[in-house]
Design brief:
This protein is mainly alpha-helical and 578 residues long. It has 21 helices and seven strands. The relative contact order is 0.04.
Length: 578
């Protein structure tokens, strides 16, 4: 349903489009494309009912049997190509082809399912086709809001499926391949496992940029047959490709004006109609096969006439920008050469870098880990995209990590000491720390034990535990209690209850306070000695508290360090004098 009244128009339009597309898909009948049985509206939305395909997903087959040999991959891939070419001819794309959307049947061959992602590739009400992305199988243009999608989009996904079948590995995300492409070509990863022509065709389909891939399934089939020469893109091709693309763009204009199917005047009329806002009802790529012969002739002519149109200065400026490969460098090129031959390539490269960086930043924010932000910063640091936020996130997480490490050290020291003083030290430093509840629970338990111990100490001082071993202990205890009660103005009952117990608790509390004050005195002496780094204060601390404070070990270590420094200084001075 529409999210708001303002969205109602777009929702109704989208619903109508969905129904139109679904009804068109229902007309397809191909053994390797899932059949759409029914389209209906209900609950203020619409539904597609597709045929159930019995079998295993190709993802399951790959998991159990990969790597697959060439014959097996051909048997899985080519029937899908047959069906998908029919879909493309009607102006539709699947746009979510992956092993999980291919069912492998025992007798009837593979079937491509889940056309819920299909969208007609002509006139869209919004600026771009809705983005659907499966990492490793979605090409670069699916990441950009205005990405140029067409049959080459599905071909990339099928190339990734073939790569997965041959190697057992999913290709890297297209956004990770824009710079320093980590993909090991199929020609290397599956060498000896399939014919060179087959592996070259797979690599062609996996070209990062759409213009470098097969533009139609027919083109790709010829590559598999070894009847179409292929050129593998290299990382240093950026500058040379720009000239190719400029020539290709101009060639398309020439082809539209001179095609034998349209005629010069007709081509001009079509161009005029487009400028006035008209449009061809078919996707541009549907006419590619019919215009192929005429286009090839014009392409050769255009190549020779247009290849050298770029000036030496323009080529050198582009070479520098492409070598740096940053948004800043491409912007600089376009400012220097606003009418340069490589402006369109620069614009597309900037868009690709932004799309890749935005996706990587989105992943880093989702992870919110120091490793993710550092990886983003290392990869896109020179692009100046989200860098301030990345630096702030790294600093924030590094501070948090340092604080956690410091807290962990103090907490571990408290656990090792297992004393009231140690836990109190932790709680003073981290009143809302991660181990606060554990520290408070341990403090309560130790205080209870301490209270009992101190009460016993008070009773011992009163003579409660004095007496011979001849069985008269109880009488001695009662006598001691009576004496304690008389000394404190109580009735001498000889029983440990009521006011007597309260007085014993008070006496124990006084002992606790005395010890607390003693601990504070020791801590102050320790802090003063450490602050001044004074050997005299270190020694004074050991003389006064060395036998009772755990801090004495640290003071002894500091004192020893001071003595070593003094000896070294004397040795240095002696050497200097001599």
């Amino acid at each position: 349903t529409a999210k708001s009244t303002a969205d109602r128009g777009d929702f109704d339009w989208g619903l109508a489009r969905f129904l139109d597309e679904a009804r068109t898909l229902a007309k397809f009948s191909h053994p390797n494309i899932v059949q759409v049985h029914q389209v209906f509206e209900s609950n203020s939305t619409a539904y597609i009912v597709m045929a159930y395909a019995q079998g295993r997903t190709l993802a399951d087959v790959i998991k159990a049997e990969a790597p697959l040999d060439e014959a097996r991959v051909r048997a899985l891939l080519f029937p899908i190509l047959d069906g998908l070419s029919k879909v493309h001819q009607q102006g539709f794309l699947h746009r979510d082809i992956k092993p999980g959307n291919i069912i492998v049947r025992d007798e009837e061959g593979p079937v491509l399912i889940d056309f819920g992602a299909a969208r007609q590739a002509i006139e869209t009400r919004s600026r771009s086709i809705t983005s659907i992305v499966t990492e490793g199988y979605a090409p670069l243009e699916q990441y950009a809001p205005d990405g140029n999608q067409g049959p080459w989009t599905d071909i990339y996904a099928l190339g990734a499926v073939a790569y997965k079948c041959l190697t057992g590995q999913t290709p890297p995300s297209a956004t990770a391949r824009v710079r320093n492409d980590p993909l090991v070509p199929a020609g290397e990863a599956a060498a000896g496992q399939a014919s060179p022509a087959f592996l070259q065709a797979v690599d062609w389909a996996l070209a990062v940029y759409e213009e470098e891939r097969p533009q139609t399934i027919a083109d790709w089939r010829r590559a598999f047959a070894g009847t179409l020469a292929l050129r593998r893109r290299r990382p240093d091709d950026a500058a040379r490709d720009a000239t190719d693309e400029t020539a290709a763009d101009r060639t398309r204009l020439l082809a539209q004006g001179t095609s034998k199917h349209g005629g010069g005047d007709e081509g001009a009329r079509r161009q005029g109609a487009i400028r006035r806002g008209g449009h061809d009802k078919r996707p541009a790529w549907l006419g590619m096969a019919g215009a192929g012969a005429g286009l090839a002739v014009v392409l050769v002519i255009a190549f020779f006439f247009l290849w050298d149109r770029a000036s030496p200065e323009d080529r050198e400026a582009w070479r520098i920008a492409a070598q740096e490969d940053t948004i800043r460098a491409y912007d600089s090129y376009m400012r220097m050469e606003p009418d340069g031959s490589y402006v369109r390539r620069a614009q597309k490269r900037i868009a690709a870098i932004r799309a890749a960086a935005d996706k990587a930043w989105e992943d880093a924010v989702k992870s919110d880990s120091l490793e993710a932000y550092k990886a983003y910063y290392e990869r896109y640091g020179k692009q100046d995209l989200h860098l301030a936020d990345a630096r702030a996130a790294i600093e924030r997480l590094e501070r948090a990590a340092a604080q956690r490490a410091a807290e962990d050290r103090i907490w571990q020291a408290a656990r090792n000491a297992d004393s009231l003083e140690a836990y109190a030290e932790y709680l003073r430093a981290y009143p809302q720390g991660r181990y606060k509840d554990q520290a408070q629970a341990r403090v309560a338990a130790l205080q209870k034990v301490q209270r009992l111990a101190l009460a016993q100490e008070v009773l011992k001082q009163a003579g409660y535990y004095d007496g011979p071993i001849d069985g008269t202990m109880s009488a001695a205890m009662e006598a001691a209690l009576r004496a304690f009660q008389q000394a404190n103005g109580l009735e001498p009952t000889g029983k440990l209850e009521g006011r007597t117990a309260a007085l014993i608790d008070q006496a124990a509390a006084r002992i606790v306070e005395q010890r607390r004050q003693r601990a504070a005195e020791i801590r102050a002496a320790y802090d003063a000695a450490v602050k001044q780094r004074s050997r005299a204060l270190y020694q004074q601390f050991l003389d006064n508290y060395g036998g009772e404070s755990p801090l004495a070990a640290d003071i002894r270590a500091r004192l020893a360090s001071c003595r070593i420094e003094t000896r070294q200084q004397r040795k240095t001075s002696s050497t200097a004098v001599s």
